[in-house]
Amino acid sequence: MVFNPKAEKPIIAVTGSAGKTMVKTMVSAILRERWVVFESKDYYNTVDKTLIHANEIDFIHRAAILEYGMAFPGAITEHCRIIQPNIGVITNVGLAHIGNFEGKVELLAAAKSELITEMNPSGILFINADDSKSELLHTRNFMGKILTVGIKVKADYTAENINYSEKGMTFTLILNGNEYPFLIPIFGEHNVYNALFAIGIADQLGFLPAEMETGLQTMKKPNHRLVIHRLKDGITVIDDTVHSHPPAVKTAINVLLNLAKQKKMAILGSMPELGVRTYQDYEDIGHHVADMKLDFLYTFGKSSVHIGEEAIKAGYPANQVKHYKQSYLKVMHRELVQTIEPGLTILVKGASRLNMYETVKFLCDHYKPD
Amino acid sequence: MLIGMLHHRKNPLTVIKAYAYAAVSKAEGAELLYFSPRGVDLENKVIHGYVYINGNWQEADSPFPDVIYNSGSPEKLVHAKEIIDKLREDIPFTTFSIGNKMRIYERLKTAGIFSSYLIPSKIIHSARNLFDLCNQYRNIVFKPVNGRKGQGVTLIRRINDRFHLLVEADNYDFNYDELRAYVSNKLKEEPYLVQPYINCKTRSGQVYDFRSHVQKNEEGKWIITSIYPRIAPRGSIVSNINSGGSTNYLVPFLKQEFGDEYYDIKCYLEQFTLQLAGHMDQLQQENFSEKIDELGVDVALDDLRKIWIYEVNWRPGSPPAFYLELDVARNMIRYASFIAREHQAKHLSVHV
């Protein structure tokens, strides 16, 4: 018996290393075009929160959308035993929390695979066809339906013609033989994957392309996650001041490259301590900055100095790099004003504990459009 | 059998349905005396009212009727309440208030049997309450607790960081502060409630619901007077006919929307309404020792064909079409006769 959403309440659980909250937001944005749904609060993804959700999901909810966090082996099994999903999404297999898995990606993939074994065995599972690490997931014995999303590889839901527009990402997608254009009001290729998961789920639940389009366009944009501010003299600020995991830093730099029409500046905060990995990650980002030929690199917070050092080693001009300790915020702001020129696009990226939103606010006030 | 029709207006010419009740009374072998509280002489047990004879309302002095069909809202008039209370001591009345939307909602919810059919509703006390619910449901309905005929019904949709309002057929686009000011002002005027918006649309995309009108018959049992769809104009969510909505006969409508399933859905709507009416009657009896005579239940069907109760109306208006005005009057007259006979029988047995 295949799971029948016309007879059973769809319970959608989203797990994966990145994008959980965004997939959840997008799925509910579409489903709410027609249904009353239960949507867990952002970041409420621990087992004790799932226990609370089990009591909150009520007859009024036509579907439930939950985020299942995976901080340790067995966590997803616990989530699923509290609320068993019939639709599962594994956004990707990244390296978050790898410290809890002896640093081995196989063990990490095994923990995420708990969703596959513990969800309704006749349900629908969504995975990312472009993510090579997702091939490590234990899908072989799954009896239900497996659907994939992709951009590079042909998948069940494949986005094409991906572009950065003024208002967000645009792409096209073929559904039931017809091509439909989509616009999502946020930036970055990673968000196209997130949208593909949402579209795939909505399609499986019988939603129409028009509902998907409106739902995605009317979604609530997450605060400080690649939010674009257009300021005066053609100056643009990209506010991404919530998280700063290494892959997300690269993603944000790619958004900067795609949005900037003239010169580009990155203000990067120090990253959370990842043990030995941290230094490698700084090296990696430093090289990326050099390869992408950013015009200015500012780093903020003690350990971020390594990003600049590594960039310079990779051939990046030393006079384009500046570093500030956390207590030098005001100094940084003063010097920024001296450097910023019309038409510049500035990425401000750092974890929320660094409070780099202060810098975004400062720039927005200083270059307030008339 | 003399049936009194009590109304707050003195002149029956200003109460259109009085004619139908007078005519149906005659046809059913009874007499109808139209009167207002001012016409009651408690001391002499005489009522100065009107009877319909030979094509005219004629003034008449009459003894107290066997039963009183109380329509309108005479108890709101000064001095009237005392008179009505006195009449109640000796004469059975057909109609008792079941309270406003929220009271009915709370009573049904507490009783439990129908609670899973109720759309969760909350009285809100501040704009903040409304924003919480809007975050939870995204699409909500904001309406006056004591509203009638769809007045003031507002759909609020959150779109990105703005709010789209549809008030009857007018559109507004507000930011957070504008909506907060708008809601705060409304809350100063009267109490409001908030419900999640349940999407019930025809195949062609128009919002609709069903009005199920039930009454008691000559044996005091619930019967369906009519069930009809109410279809909102395009771009509106208010299906009420007074607000520009339209209607249709039930069966062709169900066939058009549900194809072969139409008969099952018709039976489902009928059985649901009859059971709900019976349940409400039982609750009224338990809580107030009163009986209900007539209800208008507004329900929606979702995509799983599950019924949702929008609201239960007391003294619903007559169905707006299909020549049902006389059916409504006939059921009422027959039920009035039933309670008059019941009352007499009780009275006799007490004296024997």
Describe the protein's architecture and organization.
The complex is a heterodimer of chains A (370) and B (352). In chain A, α1 packs across α6, α8 packs parallel to α9 and α9 packs across α10. With 370 residues, chain A is of the alpha/beta class. The mean pLDDT of chain A is 91. Chain A has two domains: 207 residues, Mur-like, catalytic domain (UDP-N-acetylmuramoyl-L-alanine:D-glutamate ligase, 3-Layer(aba) Sandwich); 141 residues, Alpha-Beta Complex (Protein-Tyrosine Phosphatase, Chain A). Chain A contains twelve helices and 15 strands. Chain A is 35% helix and 22% strand. Chain A starts with 10 loop residues before the first strand and ends with a helix. In chain A, β2, α2 and β3 form a beta-alpha-beta unit. Chain B has 352 residues and is of the alpha+beta class. Helices cover 34% and strands 28% of the residues of chain B. Chain B contains eight helices and 17 strands. In chain B, the strands form four sheets. Chain B has a six-stranded antiparallel β-sheet with strand order 7-12-8-9-10-11, with helices on one face. A five-stranded antiparallel β-sheet of chain B has the order 15-14-13-16-17. Chain B has a three-stranded parallel β-sheet with strand order 2-1-6, covered by helices on one side. The longest helix of chain B has 27 residues. The radius of gyration of chain B is 22 Å and the shape is globular. The model of chain B has no long low-confidence stretch (mean pLDDT 90). The chains are: A alpha/beta (370), B alpha+beta (352). At the A-B interface, loops of A face β9 of B.
